[in-house]
């Protein structure tokens, strides 16, 4: 499989949503709900400092009985998140996500955030590649059988 993160972002678009560490968890959740996404990047002075996900909310706010309007994203985010580059291949990203149990990875080149890829993006790419392989194999088999 030779699909790169660059190709994924070209297909789906490089849009990402971000908050500041000083924003409330409620504000982050509102943004996530508005755009129907499972995470937001946390940017401070044009630099990626963290990621805040639905999982962070469930484990660090709900289960601890905290109020989302009273807690700052910076207090609960995953700081210094693992990132991938445009040149990473889908199989590499899938391995990282599977081994580390990540569902969202920021895409960063030379310190600049370019987008985010999700486990769903990876699965979609893999399934598409497998469908293409099956189609080629079916054509090959049909061609071989017709020649006999």
UniProtKB/TrEMBL annotation:
Source organism superkingdom: Bacteria
Residue ranges constituting the CBS domain according to the UniProt record: 10-71, 77-132
CDD domains per UniProt: CBS_pair_bac_euk
Keyword Protein biosynthesis found: no
Xref: InterPro entries: CBS_dom (IPR000644), CBS_dom_sf (IPR046342), CBSX3_CBS_dom (IPR044725), Diverse_CBS-Domain (IPR051257)
Keywords for this protein: CBS domain
Name of the protein in its database record: CBS domain-containing protein
Organism, as annotated: Thauera mechernichensis
Source species taxonomy: Bacteria, Pseudomonadati, Pseudomonadota, Betaproteobacteria, Rhodocyclales
């Amino acid at each position: 499989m030779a699909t790169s993160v660059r190709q994924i972002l070209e297909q789906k678009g490089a849009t990402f949503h971000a908050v500041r560490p000083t924003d409330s968890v409620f504000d982050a959740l509102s943004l996530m709900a508005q755009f129907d996404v499972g995470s937001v990047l946390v940017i401070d002075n044009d630099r990626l400092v963290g990621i805040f996900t639905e999982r962070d909310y469930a484990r660090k706010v709900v289960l601890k009985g905290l109020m989302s309007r009273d807690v700052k994203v910076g207090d609960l985010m995953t700081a210094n998140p693992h990132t991938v580059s445009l040149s990473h291949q889908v199989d590499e990203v899938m391995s990282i996500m599977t081994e580390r149990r990540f569902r969202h990875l920021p895409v960063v080149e030379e310190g600049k955030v370019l987008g985010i890829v999700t486990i769903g993006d990876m699965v979609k790419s893999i399934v598409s590649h497998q469908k293409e392989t099956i189609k080629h194999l079916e054509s090959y088999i049909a061609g071989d059988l017709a020649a006999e």
